[in-house]
Amino acid sequence: MAEFTKHLYLSMIPEAMIASQLSPEEFGVYYAIGTEKKSRGQAIFFELDPLFRHEELPIEEGFERCVPHDDGSPKRSVYISVYRVLERVALEAIRKLYLVTQDGRVLALDPAAECPEDTEGLHLYQEIAPVSPMVASTLGPLSFIDLIVRNPTSLLKLPAICFAELRLGELADDPEYGSVGDLPYPNIDHLRQCLTDLRTKAVHSKMVDRTGSAVFPYRVLKSGIYVGNAETVLFFPLPPHEELRREHYRWWRSANM
Predict the structure, then answer these.
(1) Which of 28, 95, 111, 199 could form a disulfide with 100 if both were Cys (CB 3.0 to 4.6 A apart)?
(2) C-alpha–C-alpha distance, residues 19 and 77, integer Å
(3) Prediction pTM value
(4) Distance of CA 136 to the CA centre of its chain
């Protein structure tokens, strides 16, 4: 029987820890397109150090169950946990981030050596896990993590968060009259109002959509994906569009469909 490497993945849509004998690229295709038992959809997941362990996560037992099928084919997935997973993962155990389109095109992103400095102006964030509201803010990504995880000004606090910074285009400078362009966000009038309120009221953030899905078109990613907890922040930058067209054309084409 063939030998397969056991991998440890942290899915963000939905939040889950999964053991698998599939490589990251194979797992991305399987997780997005699935089998006859699963519907297809966008996937975002991290590859973790397989040596990572946590006393509240039965990782060892998951690996023990991650064995080939009787026909010799690899075990695609063993779910280890689907509840409060992100907060239990040491971010130092994260190796890469994978963005998968709904037709199974996989893009691997490495963490940057350091996070970019916050910039002034208006920002739009799509929280991915453990909750998934869309939030407009005057805070840069690092200050946003600080507000949500470390030093909240309200009673709302998360132990860890994963989110994407999204493009605002002209709305970042002129939320009332700026051109929408190709921005695909629903209820643009409400988004304009939230952004305008941030300029006229003494608040740092406004909820744009509290009940929406964490799924978003990859083409509206502005800077990349952030994940942070009380100790650590990791930033996974999206390559420039020209580089994506040149070196990852099939993924980019799928992401823009």
Answers:
(1) 28
(2) 6
(3) 0.94
(4) 17
Place of tokens 């399987």: 30
17/33 Cα distance (integer angstroms):
18
Rounded Cα distance between 39 and 31, Å, is 10
- Spatial neighbors of 40 by CB under 8 A, at least 6 apart, are 32, 33, 34, 102, 103, 104
Is residue 58 assigned to a domain? yes
What is the distance between the alpha carbons of residues 91 and 192, in angstroms, rounded to a whole number? 35
Pair 52, 90 in one domain: yes
194 and 153 in one domain?
A: yes
Q: What is the pLDDT of residues 44-78, one digit of tens each?
A: 999 999 999 999 999 999 999 999 999 999 999 99
Query: In the listed set 109, 133, 161, which residue is the last one of a domain according to the structure?
Result: 109
Dihedral pair phi/psi, residue 12, rounded to 5°: -105, -20
Let me know whether 223 and 156 are in one domain: yes
Question: For 125-166, how does the pLDDT look when each residue is reduced to its tens digit (9 = 90+)?
Answer: 999 999 999 999 999 999 999 999 988 777 678 999 999 999
